[in-house]
Amino acid sequence: MRTPKADPSLFRNTPIQNTSKNGKDKEKAINAIVAERIRQRRLDIGLKQTELAKILGVSFQQVQKYEYKVNRVFAGRLWQIANILGVPPEYFFIDQPRKTKKKISNPLTEQHIEFDIFYTIFCCIKNPKIKQEILDLIILIVENDMENQ
Fold this sequence. Notes:
The protein is mainly α. The protein has one domain: 434 Repressor (Amino-terminal Domain), CATH 1.10.260.40. It is built from six helices and no strands. Helix 2 crosses helix 3 and helix 2 packs across helix 5. The longest helix is centred in the first third of the chain and has 24 residues, at 21-44.
């Protein structure tokens, strides 16, 4: 059985089909807002570009390119960034003051971000003996800390 073809007129006004100058300008403006908000949120929580890059598994130059509008951030990557920065993905699109120091509440706290950084770095260690020594050291530190409280 032959599948019917879609009527091309149905897609005339979709964003993908809109190649006018005005459509491209709107797209660039949205990309610029997303880039600016990524940078601002990262700074608000005190995360360095290198730390964000390690968690994402990219170079810090790639993070720079995202923040300075050289490269666009695709949906999957934006979702990852939102989780790391402790905000919902819509944070990058909703209308809000540009320079806010207010922290957005999210289950992903700064402790989770620190854990993600540690975990990412820890996974890079190839030697199992060194990994075990680090774990033993952490356990010792935690036990000491608990005794001193």
